[in-house]
Amino acid sequence: MADTDRDGSGHGTHEHAGTAPVVEEVTDFEVLEIALRELAIEKGLFTADDHRRYTEHVEQLEPAAGSRFVARAWLDPDFKRLALDDAIAASREMGIDWLHPTGFGTPSDFTAFELLEDTPTVHHVIVCTLCSCYPRPMLGMSPEWYRTPNYRRRIVRWPRQVLAEFGLYLPEDVEVRVEDSNSKHRFMVLPVRPDGTEGWSEEQLAEIVTRDCLIGVALPRPGVTSTASRPVHPAIRPVHGD
Amino acid sequence: MGNSVMGDLSSQLRVALHRVQDWPYPDQIDHGLYQAYMKTPHDVGGEPDAPALFEDKEEEQWELNTFVTCEVLGWRGIWTSEERRRIGNVDLGRTNYLGLPYYGRWLWAVARVLVEKRHITLGELIERVSEVRDRHADGSGPLDAAPRTTGDVEAVARNRHHLDAVGKGDPQCFAGTAGTPAFAVGDTVSVRELPTIFYTRTQEYLRGARGTVAKVSYESLAPEDEAFDREDQESEWFYIVRFRMADLWEAYTGCANDTLQAEISERWLRPAI
Lengths: 242, 273
Known about the structure:
By secondary structure, chain A is of the alpha/beta class. Chain A has 11 helices and 5 strands. Chain A has helices at about 30-40, 50-60, 65-75, 75-85, 85-95, 135-140, 145, 150-155, 160-165, 200-210, 210-215, and strands at about 110-115, 120-125, 175-180, 185-190, 230-235. Chain B contains 9 helices and 6 strands; from the N terminus they run αβααααααββαβαββ.
């Protein structure tokens, strides 16, 4: 248990005695990152302003957009039809333009987006076995576990076991459909609207559509408004405000 | 990490026979072993592994900076994201694939592409890394890039894609370039068993499998071309194909109607016999 932070407090990997400030040595990764960025700017490959603008784009992404998207699809049949037919157009209607911020989309996410509609007899779950393809414009940055070889190795072969490890037990009459997001399409799950949410507003519904529900490792449930708590590995020098 | 077997070292002790040997003789590598060495390290789907804790992670500032640098290099036509994936997920080899942190590989890919495409020399990079390290050796001062100049953006060799795709998106920029799709929704297809050399996005676990076309997706350059900056090549149709889990995995232990879908380029598909 020694080298993993169990409670997310930041104590474990970098044990600091008492409260004395510790100057962390600059890491090889930090040095290389800075050197490459300096050289790229000096050679005119991109500008410091390009880097700043793209960083701002990334920092405003969040899974809340996906939650609102699903809540609206649950409430508005026309929007749901559009979302299933042309999820890029539906995103645009919600103020998310997949062509941002470059005019041709983000280089790694492309501009092909597909909503996977769950039914009482089909449950979708997303993975990218080859890297970590994920609908960032809709959900922000992927969680660490989604990127790990462990999840990628196992979910395509033992999906029911892996879903059970997330606390999701599916009955035998529900078909599990794993979507290996291995090419340019990006996917998000449209879960079945749960019982007990009759008469709810879009805001109320969006609250129970957590990031895990949109990946397909959890189902929305009244009263559950946050992704399951997991161990968090702390950063040495975290992103400002992270 | 997710696959640390929860930090328990005892369970990771292995009885092993280490052969003291440099490289093997040719007659010691049969087809199966050859395939194992040639398998692209990013292609992990279906590899046996033990249950692990699924963890979240706080992002380091350098990790965000690295991600943004990679994306901006795509934005400005220095590479496509497929070149990045080929370099950082495959070219670096299995040891580093599993040995470096996630964004450590992205960073490795940046260094590699800038040198290989002759934007910088390796000497420049080595000197700059040394200088940045010295600059921050005492832990003082802001840990950030301090470029000395701004380069001539007009003088840089860039791809066509970063201009052609503007206002359209990718894969929309390839629309209308691949002719008529060979397959339609509902067609039964099988995945060809082509050899793996250097790069592909057709997973090994799908090779030889029969499936049904669920969607005619889009036209695009194939990953085998895009990953090597071959903008001169023809685009082709892609398809989302649905497979029965029981057809992919021997002794599949889930339910008979469980399925898997993946998106495959036309060159990898044949009508199922």
